[in-house]
Amino acid sequence: MEESTNLWVFGYGSLVWKPGFDHGKLVVGYVNGFARRLWQGNETHRGTPGKPGRVATLIEEAKTTTYGVAMELKGEEALDYLNNREMTLGGYIQKITMFHTADNKHPPFPVLVFVATSKSSFWLGPADPHVIAEQVVTSSGPSGHNVEYVLRLAEWVHNTLPEVHDDHLFSIEFQVRLKIKERNLCLETLMGEKEEVVESTPVHHHHSSPHAARRGTFAYTCENKCMKCIKL
Asked: The whole model's pTM is what?
Protein backbone atom coordinates (compact mmCIF):
# COMPACT_ATOMS: atom_id res chain seq x y z
CA MET A 1 0.00 0.00 0.00
CA GLU A 2 1.05 3.57 -0.51
CA GLU A 3 2.13 4.12 3.11
CA SER A 4 4.15 0.90 3.29
CA THR A 5 7.61 0.22 1.91
CA ASN A 6 7.53 -3.48 2.84
CA LEU A 7 7.01 -6.39 0.50
CA TRP A 8 3.47 -7.79 0.30
CA VAL A 9 2.42 -11.35 -0.59
CA PHE A 10 -0.88 -12.48 -2.09
CA GLY A 11 -2.53 -15.33 -0.20
CA TYR A 12 -5.15 -17.38 -2.02
CA GLY A 13 -4.91 -20.82 -0.36
CA SER A 14 -4.17 -21.75 3.23
CA LEU A 15 -2.50 -18.37 3.77
CA VAL A 16 -5.96 -16.78 4.03
CA TRP A 17 -6.79 -18.77 7.18
CA LYS A 18 -3.48 -20.17 8.41
CA PRO A 19 -0.54 -17.90 7.52
CA GLY A 20 1.99 -19.63 9.75
CA PHE A 21 4.07 -16.47 10.24
CA ASP A 22 3.81 -13.04 11.85
CA HIS A 23 2.69 -10.50 9.29
CA GLY A 24 1.85 -6.82 9.25
CA LYS A 25 -1.31 -5.41 7.73
CA LEU A 26 -3.78 -7.65 5.95
CA VAL A 27 -6.13 -6.49 3.19
CA VAL A 28 -8.86 -8.41 1.36
CA GLY A 29 -8.86 -8.01 -2.39
CA TYR A 30 -8.09 -9.60 -5.72
CA VAL A 31 -5.67 -10.04 -8.59
CA ASN A 32 -6.63 -10.05 -12.26
CA GLY A 33 -5.49 -12.46 -14.95
CA PHE A 34 -5.18 -15.47 -12.62
CA ALA A 35 -7.56 -18.32 -11.78
CA ARG A 36 -7.41 -20.38 -8.57
CA ARG A 37 -7.19 -24.10 -9.29
CA LEU A 38 -6.64 -27.14 -7.05
CA TRP A 39 -4.18 -28.59 -9.52
CA GLN A 40 -1.01 -28.76 -7.42
CA GLY A 41 -0.07 -31.88 -5.49
CA ASN A 42 1.32 -31.69 -1.98
CA GLU A 43 3.28 -34.37 -0.15
CA THR A 44 4.62 -32.34 2.78
CA HIS A 45 1.53 -30.72 4.35
CA ARG A 46 -1.75 -32.21 3.06
CA GLY A 47 -0.44 -35.49 1.68
CA THR A 48 2.44 -37.92 1.95
CA PRO A 49 5.10 -39.14 -0.49
CA GLY A 50 3.38 -41.20 -3.14
CA LYS A 51 -0.08 -40.07 -2.00
CA PRO A 52 -0.29 -36.31 -2.51
CA GLY A 53 -3.17 -34.12 -1.49
CA ARG A 54 -4.59 -31.34 -3.66
CA VAL A 55 -3.76 -27.69 -2.94
CA ALA A 56 -4.35 -24.43 -4.73
CA THR A 57 -2.25 -22.73 -7.34
CA LEU A 58 -2.92 -19.87 -9.75
CA ILE A 59 -2.94 -20.31 -13.50
CA GLU A 60 -2.78 -17.42 -15.91
CA GLU A 61 -6.20 -16.85 -17.40
CA ALA A 62 -7.25 -13.62 -19.07
CA LYS A 63 -10.34 -11.80 -17.80
CA THR A 64 -10.39 -13.87 -14.60
CA THR A 65 -10.31 -12.45 -11.07
CA THR A 66 -9.18 -14.34 -7.97
CA TYR A 67 -9.91 -13.09 -4.47
CA GLY A 68 -7.67 -13.52 -1.46
CA VAL A 69 -5.61 -11.37 0.89
CA ALA A 70 -2.52 -9.20 0.65
CA MET A 71 -0.22 -9.66 3.65
CA GLU A 72 2.52 -7.25 4.58
CA LEU A 73 5.79 -9.07 5.24
CA LYS A 74 7.84 -7.87 8.19
CA GLY A 75 11.54 -8.72 8.01
CA GLU A 76 13.48 -11.35 6.10
CA GLU A 77 12.31 -14.20 8.34
CA ALA A 78 8.78 -14.07 6.91
CA LEU A 79 10.04 -14.19 3.33
CA ASP A 80 12.48 -16.99 4.16
CA TYR A 81 9.63 -18.95 5.73
CA LEU A 82 7.42 -18.50 2.67
CA ASN A 83 10.22 -19.35 0.23
CA ASN A 84 10.85 -22.60 2.09
CA ARG A 85 7.15 -23.43 2.49
CA GLU A 86 6.08 -22.58 -1.04
CA MET A 87 9.16 -23.07 -3.22
CA THR A 88 11.46 -25.60 -1.53
CA LEU A 89 8.70 -27.84 -0.16
CA GLY A 90 5.78 -26.91 -2.39
CA GLY A 91 7.26 -26.63 -5.87
CA TYR A 92 6.02 -23.07 -6.52
CA ILE A 93 7.76 -20.19 -8.27
CA GLN A 94 7.56 -16.44 -7.63
CA LYS A 95 5.79 -13.83 -9.71
CA ILE A 96 4.81 -10.21 -9.20
CA THR A 97 1.36 -8.90 -10.03
CA MET A 98 -0.90 -6.03 -9.03
CA PHE A 99 -3.31 -6.34 -6.11
CA HIS A 100 -6.61 -4.47 -5.94
CA THR A 101 -8.35 -3.92 -2.61
CA ALA A 102 -11.95 -5.15 -2.48
CA ASP A 103 -13.19 -1.87 -1.01
CA ASN A 104 -11.39 0.21 -3.68
CA LYS A 105 -10.11 2.54 -0.98
CA HIS A 106 -6.49 2.20 -2.09
CA PRO A 107 -4.78 2.25 -5.48
CA PRO A 108 -3.47 -1.08 -6.82
CA PHE A 109 -0.04 -2.11 -5.51
CA PRO A 110 2.44 -4.89 -6.37
CA VAL A 111 2.37 -8.19 -4.50
CA LEU A 112 4.49 -11.31 -4.55
CA VAL A 113 2.58 -14.36 -5.79
CA PHE A 114 3.60 -18.00 -5.47
CA VAL A 115 2.33 -20.07 -8.40
CA ALA A 116 2.86 -23.63 -9.57
CA THR A 117 2.98 -24.63 -13.23
CA SER A 118 2.94 -27.87 -15.16
CA LYS A 119 6.74 -27.87 -14.90
CA SER A 120 6.52 -28.48 -11.15
CA SER A 121 7.36 -32.01 -10.03
CA PHE A 122 4.24 -31.91 -7.82
CA TRP A 123 1.87 -30.86 -10.62
CA LEU A 124 -1.32 -32.94 -10.85
CA GLY A 125 -3.26 -30.85 -13.33
CA PRO A 126 -6.97 -30.59 -14.11
CA ALA A 127 -9.60 -33.22 -13.30
CA ASP A 128 -13.35 -33.33 -12.79
CA PRO A 129 -14.58 -32.01 -9.42
CA HIS A 130 -15.65 -35.45 -8.20
CA VAL A 131 -12.23 -36.88 -9.07
CA ILE A 132 -10.41 -34.10 -7.20
CA ALA A 133 -12.83 -34.52 -4.28
CA GLU A 134 -12.05 -38.23 -4.08
CA GLN A 135 -8.35 -37.45 -3.77
CA VAL A 136 -9.08 -34.79 -1.15
CA VAL A 137 -11.22 -37.09 0.99
CA THR A 138 -8.57 -39.81 0.98
CA SER A 139 -5.48 -37.64 1.60
CA SER A 140 -3.87 -36.24 4.74
CA GLY A 141 -0.44 -35.11 5.86
CA PRO A 142 1.57 -33.57 8.71
CA SER A 143 -0.46 -30.32 8.60
CA GLY A 144 -3.82 -32.09 8.66
CA HIS A 145 -6.40 -33.66 6.40
CA ASN A 146 -6.84 -32.43 2.84
CA VAL A 147 -10.55 -31.99 3.60
CA GLU A 148 -9.69 -29.32 6.14
CA TYR A 149 -7.64 -27.42 3.56
CA VAL A 150 -10.43 -27.34 0.98
CA LEU A 151 -13.34 -26.64 3.32
CA ARG A 152 -11.61 -23.92 5.33
CA LEU A 153 -10.60 -22.17 2.10
CA ALA A 154 -14.12 -22.41 0.69
CA GLU A 155 -15.66 -21.22 3.95
CA TRP A 156 -13.30 -18.25 4.04
CA VAL A 157 -14.57 -17.17 0.63
CA HIS A 158 -18.21 -17.77 1.62
CA ASN A 159 -17.87 -15.84 4.89
CA THR A 160 -15.54 -13.02 3.86
CA LEU A 161 -16.80 -12.50 0.32
CA PRO A 162 -20.38 -13.84 0.39
CA GLU A 163 -21.23 -12.37 -3.01
CA VAL A 164 -18.18 -13.73 -4.83
CA HIS A 165 -18.58 -16.91 -6.87
CA ASP A 166 -15.65 -19.33 -7.31
CA ASP A 167 -17.11 -22.12 -9.41
CA HIS A 168 -14.00 -24.34 -9.37
CA LEU A 169 -13.54 -24.19 -5.60
CA PHE A 170 -17.23 -24.41 -4.74
CA SER A 171 -17.90 -27.36 -7.05
CA ILE A 172 -15.09 -29.29 -5.36
CA GLU A 173 -16.38 -28.27 -1.94
CA PHE A 174 -19.83 -29.59 -2.90
CA GLN A 175 -18.39 -32.94 -3.99
CA VAL A 176 -16.21 -33.23 -0.86
CA ARG A 177 -19.19 -32.63 1.43
CA LEU A 178 -21.25 -35.12 -0.57
CA LYS A 179 -18.62 -37.85 -0.21
CA ILE A 180 -18.30 -37.17 3.52
CA LYS A 181 -22.07 -37.58 3.92
CA GLU A 182 -22.30 -40.67 1.72
CA ARG A 183 -19.49 -42.42 3.61
CA ASN A 184 -20.73 -41.37 7.03
CA LEU A 185 -17.39 -39.78 7.89
CA CYS A 186 -16.87 -37.59 10.92
CA LEU A 187 -16.34 -34.03 9.74
CA GLU A 188 -14.96 -32.92 13.10
CA THR A 189 -12.21 -35.55 12.86
CA LEU A 190 -11.37 -34.57 9.30
CA MET A 191 -11.21 -30.88 10.20
CA GLY A 192 -8.86 -31.45 13.14
CA GLU A 193 -8.52 -29.02 15.99
CA LYS A 194 -10.02 -25.63 15.30
CA GLU A 195 -7.43 -23.21 14.00
CA GLU A 196 -7.19 -19.54 14.87
CA VAL A 197 -8.67 -18.22 11.66
CA VAL A 198 -7.38 -14.93 10.22
CA GLU A 199 -10.08 -12.36 10.78
CA SER A 200 -11.25 -10.62 7.60
CA THR A 201 -14.16 -8.21 7.37
CA PRO A 202 -16.83 -9.49 4.97
CA VAL A 203 -16.90 -7.57 1.70
CA HIS A 204 -20.20 -7.14 -0.11
CA HIS A 205 -20.66 -6.93 -3.86
CA HIS A 206 -23.67 -6.74 -6.14
CA HIS A 207 -23.98 -10.39 -7.16
CA SER A 208 -24.67 -13.16 -4.68
CA SER A 209 -23.13 -16.60 -4.92
CA PRO A 210 -25.59 -19.28 -6.07
CA HIS A 211 -23.85 -21.65 -3.65
CA ALA A 212 -24.56 -19.57 -0.55
CA ALA A 213 -28.02 -21.04 0.04
CA ARG A 214 -27.11 -24.67 -0.53
CA ARG A 215 -24.24 -24.80 1.98
CA GLY A 216 -26.67 -25.58 4.79
CA THR A 217 -28.53 -28.35 2.98
CA PHE A 218 -26.36 -31.22 4.15
CA ALA A 219 -26.88 -33.00 7.47
CA TYR A 220 -23.26 -33.76 8.14
CA THR A 221 -23.13 -37.18 9.70
CA CYS A 222 -20.51 -38.75 11.89
CA GLU A 223 -19.27 -42.15 12.84
CA ASN A 224 -20.82 -43.46 16.08
CA LYS A 225 -17.71 -42.59 18.01
CA CYS A 226 -18.06 -38.93 17.12
CA MET A 227 -20.36 -37.11 19.53
CA LYS A 228 -20.99 -34.13 17.27
CA CYS A 229 -19.85 -32.56 14.04
CA ILE A 230 -19.07 -28.96 13.35
CA LYS A 231 -21.00 -27.51 10.46
CA LEU A 232 -18.55 -25.86 8.06
From this structure: 0.79
